[in-house]
Amino acid sequence: MARTIQEPYIRARENPFFNGIRGSDSTMMTDDFKDSVRTRNISRSSSDLTNTRLGRAISDLAEIDVDDSSKNSATDIVLEPYGRSSSGKWSKVTRPSAFSLPVVQFDLSNDTGEAKNSRKASTSSGLAGPTVEKSYSVYKKRQNHFQIPLPHSAAAFYNGYSPQMEIVESCEGIDRLNLYLKATRDDVNAGIPGRFLHAVMGQDNCDVGSIASTIMYAFYLNETLKGTLKGNQLCTVPVINMKRAELAVHAELQWLLDSCYIDQSFLIFVDEIDLSYYDLFGSLKLVLLNGSKLPPKQEGLQSAVVEIFNCRMGDSVYSWVENVTMAQECSCCTLIAEKFALTSPEILAGQGFSRLLLSGILCDSGNLTNLQCTSKDKYMATLLINGAGRFGCDGLYQILRFKMHDVSDLKVGDLLRKDFKKWTKFGKPDGGGLRMMVSHVGMSSIGISVGQLLHEDMSTQEIISFQQSEKLQLLLVVSGYYDSKKNFKREILVAAESTELMKNLLDFFNLNSSQLPLKVLHKPGQGAFLAFLFSFDNKEF
Known about the structure:
Elements: H1 16-22, H2 31-39, H3 46-62, E1 76-78, E2 82-84, E3 90-92, E4 98-100, E5 119-123, E6 132-140, H4 154-159, E7 165-169, H5 172-189, E8 196-201, H6 208-225, H7 229-233, E9 234-240, H8 251-259, E10 268-269, H9 275-280, E11 284-289, E12 305-311, E13 323-326, H10 332-343, H11 351-364, H12 375-383, H13 392-405, H14 412-418, E14 420-429, E15 436-446, H15 450-453, H16 459-469, E16 474-482, E17 488-496, H17 499-511, E18 519-522, E19 530-537
Parallel strand pairs: 8-9, 8-11, 9-10, 11-12, 12-13, 15-16
Antiparallel strand pairs: 1-4, 2-3, 5-6, 6-7, 14-15, 16-17, 17-19, 18-19
Helix pairs in contact: 6-10, 6-11, 8-13, 10-11, 11-13, 14-16
């Protein structure tokens, strides 16, 4: 039996092969090693050959000077995979098709934080066929999320200390959405001549789900009606049922719109369009979302309602409305995403487009955990998972929740306006019997202690200004927060415009002290700002 002679093992850097792979020039290989390579029969798989060619092509492409446009020519590489014959042997198969590696151009502007030129990667074949093109934009990161307790994820681990720049893939759906919003804004500014105003509007408690569903359902209606006779008669416009100024106190809405790259200047808020004017001349057709009735302030527009979308089972609706979609106990964004999935599913592949719908589903369903969450919500959230990006669904939900309760950048007036309710009470006629006594009562809910609210010298004056701007006879500021020992505390700050009104309120509290045990913490003296601060323990309430 012939003995196999094993060559001695040459360790690490003394091996001539090391010099061969370390340098790109073949002269670094020794003559002995070249001779040994010629005498050996080395077999290589098709994947090895393909990876080697791709590696060389990418290496060559990386050496291109991105500042010199004359060198930015695409490199064509012909793949020659190995095909298997009928005899079972692998043979080289020449394929005439080729693909073009992307050409990268980055011209960053430090002033605007955006890239002037975007990266475009086109993929084409030798045969006649469609060209797929994707573009990437480079932006300066607007903020980090280090202070937000995000859940652990592989994407966050590999991201590490991310650079100050981020590369964002273009989203065709968001591009189309922004074009649509700009067109509707221009139409409204022009007065919508010769067409009906087809306004899509939700309830007046605007949250993430309401904003997302209003924008997306209006866009869906516009896309489905486009080119039809009915569509030519209508100008479908999403109307955000809140004042534009109130957007400043909703950090979660601002972050969501920015992260989805939706231009906020194209949005139309309820204080920017006079719906009653269009209703007066019979040119208003209203689509109501997330409820069967209009808010009390807009009850006068009820005759213009032509469609109700996502109302609860059993709710009484306007009798003349024929087009009614019941909620089926799921999120409104879930129903809208389902409609897109049935008509144009490819639009849901874009990250920005899917993030807007996914955020609405997560916020409406408490991150898919509350009792109202349905299997359809979970299915659609899985379908829209690309919208969560590297944060994942849990991380995206945590960011929105954190932004919702983050008041670090808000002034006192904005903080009081963030969660504010107002009631109007009609009392007995005055002494002459000609006018009814009208009183306005307001309540603001805050997530910090009253001490934090009043920590600045001008805080008291800002509270007075807010009370006067809202024309309130009585303002209650209800505080709910956790102290340093993780105990939940509640405090009530009461501000009244007169001594008599404050006395009546104190009598009411004393009368109901057994049901609402309050501890008076502060009694200011007489003055323009009459306030009492009460506190009660959560265990006692």
